[in-house]
Queue: 2 jobs
Job 1
Amino acid sequence: MSLADSNFPFQQMWYTDSVSDRPNLLFIMSDDHAAHAISAYGSKINSTPNLDRIAASGMRLDSAFCTNSICAPSRAAILTGTYNHINGVTTLDTPLDNSLWNIAKELQSAGYTTGMIGKWHLGHGPGADPSGFDVWRVLPGQGHYHNPVMLEPEGRIVERGGYVTDLITDDCIDFLDDHGDGPFALFCHHKAPHRSWEPAPRHFTKYDDVEIPEPHTFRDDLVGRAEVIQAVRMRMMDLDPIVDLKAVVPEGLSEDDEIAWRYQRYIKDYLRVVDAIDENVGRLLDHLAAKGIADNTVVMYTSDQGFFLGDHGWFDKRLMYEESLTMPLLIQYPEKIEAGSTSDDIVTNVDFAPTMLELLGVDSPDGLQGRSFVPLLEGETPDDWPTSMYYRYWMHRDGSHLCPAHYGVRTTTHKLICYYNDPLDQPGANGPADPIEWELFDLVADPYEVDNVIDQAVYAEVQAELVAELTRLQAAVDDEPFPGAAPRGS
Ligand code: CA
C-alpha cells in the first residue's frame, strides 16, 4: 500500500511533516554580476531595488568568495560541493561528469522536485547534460541574449522569442506554477550580465544622460605588481569597440579620453543588463508572495564570481583580486535568518551545497569539501570557523585575456598569491616559461590592492605565516603545489 492510498491519518501526518512541509529552494545565480553593482552592497554606480529586497528580508554576506573565478568551474563547485581539482572542472573546456554526485540528485532522492532553467555551461550530451533535475531547459554554451535557442532533455531544441533574462524568468514562473506545492528546488541561472552585455530594448537608452563614476583604481598603473599581471589583457583598450562597445571610437580622442569613453560605453551596457536581472528577480519574489510560499522558500541570489567594473582599469574576472574573488550572496528565509542581517565571516562556493542541504533539512553525504554556514545565517559564528580560504585559477594565459595561472590564500586581513606557469598545460602555446611571481596585499592598510608588499621586510613574518597557511590549505583540500613554485624563503 502506498502512502497516497492510505487513509490512516497518522501516516498522512508523517508524510506531510517530513516532506511536504519542508522549505523550498529558489537559487538565483547570474553570470559575472559583481557585488559592487548591487545597491545593497553599497554600489556607487546603480540601484537594484529588487535584489535589495532579499538583503532587507534576510542576510547579506560580505565575505563570500569563489574558489576559482571563472564560470564553469564555479558552477561545478556549487553543484558538487567540491574544489575543481576534485570535480574535474578546472577550466572552461572541461564538461562536468554528470555521473558525479550533485546537490540536485540528493534533493531529488529526498523527495524534492528539481529544476534547472537558464545557463548551464557545463557541457552537453549524454555524459554532461544536467542530471538530477526533473525539469531542465538550458542555453547551449553561452547562449544568446536575444531570441535564444534552449535545450531540453533528449536533445529537444526550443526556439524562443524575446530577451533571455525575461524568458528564463518566464520558465521559472511556469515551474513555480507547476510545482509550487513543493517541496521544490529551482535553480534559475541567468546568462546576464556576461560579456558582451546586450541590454533588453526597454533599457537601450537608460543612463544615456548620466556619467557613471569611474572606480577608485580606474587609473591604476599596476606598478609593483607581478609582471604577468601587468601583461593581462583586460584593460579598457582591450575591449572590442564593435562587439563589446557597439560603437565606433570617436576620432581625435587622446588615449586617456578614449579610455574614459570606453568605460562609459562598457559600464552602461553592463548596468542595463543588470537592470533586467533586478526586474526579473522582483517578478520571482512577487510570484512567490502571490502563491503564499515566500515564507517557506529559501531564496538565494548570487553570481558565479565577481567582475572588474573598471577596477584596476580592467573588465572581466579570473584574478584573485577582491572585485573578481567576491561573490554577491543574499539569502532570505525568515524561519532562520534575521531580516537585514549581515556577516563578515568567510564562506566559499564550495560551502553552498552543504548549506543549502542543511537549510532544507537534508543530510549531506560524505565527501563534500565545504562546510554548512547555516550557523552564520542564524547569527552565530562557531569558534572554529575558518579565517582563510584557498583559491586556484588554472587557465594559464589562455585565449585573449592572458591571465596567468595562480593560487593563493586570502585571510581576513591579508592575501598571498603565487603566479606560476605550467607550460605542460599548453605546450608551446605561450613560449618560454614565465617566472614564478608572488604578490602580497595587506587588505587592512590597502583594501584596493594597489601596493604589493611581497618584498617589504616588515611583512616577512606575515609572509611566512601566509605561506604556511597556503601550504596547509592546499594539503587540506587534497591539492598540490605547482612543481618549482616552492614558497619564497624556503
Ligand atoms: Ca561567470
Job 2
Amino acid sequence: MSGNSLTRRPQYGEHDQVTALTVSGLTYHFGAKTALKDVSFSIPEGRFCALLGPNGAGKSTLFSLLTGLLVSKAGTITLNGHDMRRSPRSALGDLGVVFQQTTLDLDLTVTQNLTYFAALHGISGRAAAKRIDDVLDRMSMRERAHEKTRALNGGHKRRVEIARALLHQPKVMLLDEPTVGLDAPARAAITDHVHSLCGNGDLTVLWATHLTDEVRMSDDLIILDRGTVLLHDLAGQIAGTRPLNGVFLDMIGASS
Ligand code: ADP
Ligand code: MG
C-alpha cells in the first residue's frame, strides 16, 4: 500500500475550494537516494498548512522544488493556477519564501534590507516605503525599522525575513522550519503571527516543521516521512481525541 493511499482530502466549507498550491506525483532523487516519492497534495486558498516531518523527511527538498531551485523530472507543481514548468515566472511571482537559513544583510538596517528587496521586485520610492510600513506593521516590527539588523534578536530577525517575503504581496508563502534556533516565547510569537496572516483569506501558507506544538487543530496538516505523504487532513481530524504529538510519533514510528 502506498503512503498516498492513506491520504484523505480534508473536508472544507463550500466557499473554501480555490486551490493555491497543487503538487501532483512529485518524485525527486539525489543520485541513488529517493528524497521524495510520488508526493501529491492540494492546498486551498487562504489556508495555513503545516508540513510536519522528522529530519530527513524531504521537507526542504520539496521547498527547493516549489521554489525552482531543483527541478523534478516526475510530477507537476501548480501555484495559483500557474504551472511551474510552463510558466515559472508567473508561478514564482506569486510566491514568498522564508528559507531555513537566515539571508538578511546584518550590516544594513531593517528598512535598508527591505528597500533592497523591494527594488529587486521593481518597487521603489513612495510605493516601496508604503509597502515596507505595511509589512513591518503586519509583523509588529515598525518600531525596529531603523535598527541595524545585527542588533535584533533571533525572533525579530525572523520577523524581518517574513516581512520581506510579504513585500511583493505573494499569494502563497513557504516557510522552512522558520522557528529553528528560537527560544520558546519567540517561537510561539512567530507561529501566532504567521497563523494570523492567513486570517483574512488571501494568503496561503505552507509551514515546514518537525514540532507538533506549532500546529493548530484547524490547520491543514500534511505528515511527510521518508519522502512519502503519510496523511493529509485537518489537524484536528488527524489528532482526534489524542495529543497530536503522540499520533505523529506513532505514525513515523510505524513507518520505520
Ligand atoms: P528535511 O528538510 O525534511 O529534513 P531534506 O529534504 O533536507 O529533509 O532531505 C531529504 C533526504 O534527502 C534526506 O535523506 C537527505 O539526506 C537527502 N538529501 C538532501 N539534500 C541532499 C543532497 N544535496 N544530496 C544528497 N542527499 C540529500
Ligand atoms: Mg529541512
